[in-house]
Design brief:
This protein is of the alpha/beta class and 185 residues long. The chain has helices at residues 3-8, 33-38, 49-55, 94-111, 121-127, 162-184, and strands at residues 24-28, 76-80, 115-119, 136-142, 145-150. Helices cover 36% and strands 15% of the residues. A hairpin with a 2-residue loop joins β4 (136-142) and β5. 40% of the residues are buried.
């Protein structure tokens, strides 16, 4: 993809991969320019979302960004706090995050996933005005949807390796599986 093609994707909005009643709705910060250009979530080379999703046990194999709709067959989906594509998340204003939090709340109220997993603790803190939030399950719920904060899988997030992220994601997978097991007994 050329630099011109990437720049042309600035401010593009890509559709959510979502449906009602999901087990987990993953929520990215916002689409990258590569995602905007391709129409696929977490499409930027170096983004570790797809490998981490597999390593954590959410998917039986590592999906490619263009296979994103297959997530629905596993009870998973993807949305974003802020819908517009940018080169970097630091191009977004705090107001955009707060507005994104309101829109995300409305979306979750409509779709009613069991869990909302925000991938990026800073995005979560800003969108939901919760400066003390820590990684993992949150006390906040949206209706009956539980909220979980996970590490941002961006390749720029050097604090986490794919393996340590997968361990954190696996905690959510185990909680979601336990809920499913409880609901079927």
């Amino acid at each position: 993809m050329t630099p011109e093609e990437l720049q042309a994707a600035r401010d593009t909005v890509i559709p959510d991969v979502a449906a009602g009643g999901l087990s987990v709705l993953f929520c990215g910060i916002n689409p990258s320019l590569m995602s905007g250009a391709t129409g696929h979530h977490f499409a930027r080379p170096g983004n570790r979302f797809w490998p981490v999703l597999h390593l954590s046990g959410f998917t039986p194999r590592q999906l490619k960004p263009w296979e994103q709709n297959e997530l629905l067959t596993y009870g998973l989906g993807i949305t974003n706090v802020v819908a517009r594509a940018t080169a970097r998340a630091d191009e977004l204003s705090a107001e955009e995050f707060r507005e994104g939090g309101h829109l995300l709340t409305a979306k979750v109220e409509q779709l009613r996933p069991r869990y909302l997993a925000v991938v990026g603790i800073t995005a979560y803190r800003t969108a939901f005005d919760d400066r003390k939030a820590r990684m993992g399950p949150q006390t906040r719920t949206i209706g009956e949807t539980r909220v979980w904060a996970l590490p941002n899988p961006s390749g720029l997030n050097a604090h986490w390796t794919a393996q340590t992220m997968a361990e954190e994601y696996a905690h959510l997978r185990a909680a979601a599986q336990a809920d499913t097991d409880t609901a079927t007994t």
